[in-house]
């Protein structure tokens, strides 16, 4: 494949950027001509951030899987689309060429149809990182069903919340999943989730671990049996269902500062163009290269940079079932050597963790195939950046620090590998179509360079979220109401003298733990479910490997066991309500929380204490009970 829209130099970047801002419709129309459409658009862009109402390529008809699969059948049928590496280094890897992947997606689209799935239906996918997961997403897209992937680390309760919110009547899962030394009983978790979700009509179960599962007659079917039925029917092709540009493609739940996670909605055409454009430009992908994104498909990074971005570009995408530190901390380097990986895209938390194991695991591994390195999900500290550069890129591979969000669909701010300059710990410059602004507390734009503020966007790019599922008002309030006529990211940011952006972290009550977003309110709600808990307050604190750790201040009046046991009980409750990823690292029992006279918890003070910045607590005399602060400081963990 050729990418006529691939930016080739810094001056080209400047020209493209300028054009994208001055003539956005013409700019994106030109990019969009490089895709397969069933019908072209009537209007490139309609937008209004007030409501919000955002439409890209209105009137166009397409199916994203024709762009990810069918169009490559003619030009490169035998090129590997997905290379799958097992959790177990001894197990044979699997390769699916574009032809094979197309075949399997069509087959599974028939399975979905046979099981009653129709265009517009919501399908919840809770699987491990096996090729069938990719096949499941693409088959949904082919049939026009809306997929809602739930990460394998979430609990039954979290799945039930998401099933209910989207009213998903179909579930695709596995018997179990392997993750390092662990075996996760996915189907059993689904069974627990479904106790309160009687509206789920069908569960399709794919075999991976062959752990014992209960299969409920009339509701549960095996993936393999359903495939056999399609084979006997003799069905091979499955014509891609015609979708409107603005039909929903998927829902992905993400945490915000309040309430339960929101279902971020992306639509077909804009998302496709954005995932592809950013993939081709940021990583400077060249035909034939092997792209290894280490994320899980349960998160947006996997959606955009394992599946839709690479496949729509005809790339070879490496999908890894395991974890970076099992059987040992050399796993990534072994995979790079084995497949001659060109691009490695991972999270700072993984880099920091591997850094901790020392260079011994890299020694003797041939990493000379590496051309580009990438990071995503959280700020990367300079030490980790230099370690990555020196040991993995051998100071020859550009590092792209890519800033974006579930809501943005794809990368918004990043250097372009080897094309625009990198600066350690800076995401650097906005991509064409992206117009960042920094504002103060009152929403006033902060102009000039060498400044910092809250990061907003003043115009839509094709991949911006369109709504939050089932609750458009929530979308407006969360992203478009804080500052007038701006999309608010929730991140703080500084702009250096040269106009480079550096993301400094969330300014709302959202934590970023190992690159995973978790709302403090969500964790508090889970803790408060535990018997004996009167009240709790959760804040983040700096953590060497995870970036941020979870610190919970808890008023507890339980009487069952000592403090250590109580902590374990609370952790178990949080695991049940959300999942193990939300378990607090530290739980401090307190008798009161610092509150204003109107009863609002002063999180700022709690944050400072957790961060060990007791010297800068500020004035505490206006608190309802100033003495409580001293007590909390004394009891700090
Ligand atoms: C943070 C992940 C600094 C940020 C793609 C954002 C980053 C949140 C970076 C979104 C980066 C992501 N530098 N911070 N390069 N990339 N973030 O929705 O706080 O899981 O708002 O999307 O991660 O997390 P999400």
Summarize the structure in words.
It is a single chain. This protein is of the alpha/beta class. Among the domains are: 96-241, Rossmann fold (3-Layer(aba) Sandwich), CATH 3.40.50.980; 512-634, GMP Synthetase, Chain A, domain 3 (2-Layer Sandwich). The chain is built from 18 helices and 30 strands. Strand 29, helix 16 and strand 30 form a beta-alpha-beta unit. The structure holds 5'-O-[(S)-ethoxy(hydroxy)phosphoryl]adenosine. The site of 5'-O-[(S)-ethoxy(hydroxy)phosphoryl]adenosine has 22 residues, from helix 10, strand 20, strand 24 and strand 25.
Topology, element by element:
Blueprint: H1 10-22, H2 24-32, E1 43-48, E2 53-58, E3 61-62, H3 64-75, E4 80-85, E5 94-97, H4 98-114, E6 122-126, H5 131-143, E7 146-149, H6 156-166, E8 170-174, E9 177-179, E10 182-184, H7 186-194, E11 202-206, E12 220-222, H8 223-233, E13 243-244, E14 248-254, E15 262-267, H9 268-282, E16 290-293, H10 300-312, E17 316-320, H11 331-339, E18 343-346, H12 348-356, E19 372-376, H13 382-392, E20 399-402, E21 436-439, E22 451-457, E23 467-468, H14 472-480, E24 487-495, E25 501-506, E26 510-513, E27 516-519, H15 520-528, E28 533-543, E29 547-556, H16 563-577, E30 586-589, H17 603-610, H18 627-634
Parallel strand pairs: 4-17, 6-7, 6-8, 7-14, 8-11, 11-12, 16-17, 16-18, 18-19, 19-20, 29-30
Antiparallel strand pairs: 1-2, 3-13, 4-5, 9-10, 14-15, 15-23, 21-22, 22-24, 24-25, 26-27, 28-29
Bound molecules: 5'-O-[(S)-ethoxy(hydroxy)phosphoryl]adenosine (WTA).
Residues 254, 299-301, 376-379, 401-406, 427, 489-491, 503, 506, 512, 517 line the site of 5'-O-[(S)-ethoxy(hydroxy)phosphoryl]adenosine.
């Amino acid at each position: 494949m050729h990418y006529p829209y691939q930016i080739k130099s810094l001056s080209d970047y400047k020209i493209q950027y300028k054009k994208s801002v001055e003539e956005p419709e013409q700019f994106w129309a030109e990019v969009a001509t490089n895709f397969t459409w069933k019908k072209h658009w009537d209007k490139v862009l309609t937008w209004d951030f007030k409501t919000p109402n955002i439409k890209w390529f209105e009137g166009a008809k397409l199916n994203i899987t024709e762009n990810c699969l069918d169009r490559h059948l003619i030009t490169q049928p035998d090129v590997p689309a997905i290379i799958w590496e097992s959790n177990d280094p001894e197990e044979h890897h699997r390769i699916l060429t574009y032809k094979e992947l197309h075949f399997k997606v069509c087959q599974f689209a028939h399975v979905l149809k046979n099981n009653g799935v129709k265009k517009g239906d919501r399908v919840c996918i809770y699987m491990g990182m096996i090729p069938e997961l990719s096949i499941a997403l693409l088959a949904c897209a082919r049939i026009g069903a809306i997929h809602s992937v739930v990460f394998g680390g979430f609990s039954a309760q979290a799945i039930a919340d998401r099933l209910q919110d989207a009213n998903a009547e179909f579930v695709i899962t596995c018997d179990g999943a392997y993750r390092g030394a662990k075996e996760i009983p996915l189907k059993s978790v689904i069974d627990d989730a479904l106790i309160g979700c009687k509206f789920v009509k069908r569960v399709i179960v794919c075999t991976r671990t062959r752990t014992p599962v209960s299969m409920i007659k009339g509701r549960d079917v095996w993936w393999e049996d359903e495939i056999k039925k399609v084979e006997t029917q003799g069905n091979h092709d499955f014509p891609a269902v015609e979708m409107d540009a603005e039909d929903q493609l998927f829902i992905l739940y993400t945490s915000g500062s309040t309430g339960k996670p929101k279902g971020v909605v992306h639509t077909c055409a804009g998302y496709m163009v954005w995932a592809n454009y950013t993939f081709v430009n940021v990583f400077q992908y060249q035909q034939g290269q092997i792209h290894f994104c280490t994320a899980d498909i349960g998160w947006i990074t996997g959606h955009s940079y394992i599946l839709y971005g690479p496949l729509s570009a005809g790339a070879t995408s490496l999908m890894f079932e395991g974890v970076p530190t099992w059987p040992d901390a050399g796993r990534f380097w072994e995979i790079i050597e084995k497949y001659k990986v060109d691009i490695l895209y991972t999270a700072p938390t993984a880099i920091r963790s591997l850094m901790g194991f020392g260079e011994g695991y890299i020694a003797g591994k041939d990493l000379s195939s590496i051309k580009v390195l990438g990071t995503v999900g959280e700020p990367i500290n300079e030490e980790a950046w230099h370690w990555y550069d020196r040991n993995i890129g051998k100071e020859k591979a550009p590092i792209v620090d890519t800033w974006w969000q579930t809501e943005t669909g794809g990368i918004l701010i990043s250097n372009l590998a080897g094309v625009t300059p990198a600066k350690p710990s800076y995401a650097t410059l906005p991509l064409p179509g992206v117009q960042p602004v920094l504002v103060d507390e009152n929403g006033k734009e902060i102009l000039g360079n060498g400044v910092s503020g809250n990061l907003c966007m003043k115009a839509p790019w094709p991949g911006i979220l369109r709504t939050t599922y089932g609750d458009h008002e929530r979308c407006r309030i969360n992203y478009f109401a804080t500052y007038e006529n701006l999309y608010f990211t929730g991140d703080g940011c500084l702009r250096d003298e040269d106009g480079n952006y550096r993301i400094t972290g969330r300014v709302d009550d959202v934590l970023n733990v190992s690159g995973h977003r978790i709302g403090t309110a969500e964790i508090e709600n889970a803790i408060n479910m535990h018997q004996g808990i009167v009240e709790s307050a959760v804040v983040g604190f700096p953590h060497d490997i995870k970036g941020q750790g979870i610190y919970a201040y808890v008023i507890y009046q339980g009487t069952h066991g000592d403090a250590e046991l109580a902590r374990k009980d609370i952790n178990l409750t949080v695991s049940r309500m959300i999942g193990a990823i939300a378990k607090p690292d530290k739980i401090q029992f307190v008798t009161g929380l610092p509150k204003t006279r109107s009863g609002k918890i002063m999180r700022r003070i709690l944050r400072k204490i957790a961060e060990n910045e007791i010297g800068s607590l500020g004035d505490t005399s206006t608190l309802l009970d100033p003495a409580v602060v001293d007590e909390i400081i004394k009891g700090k963990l």
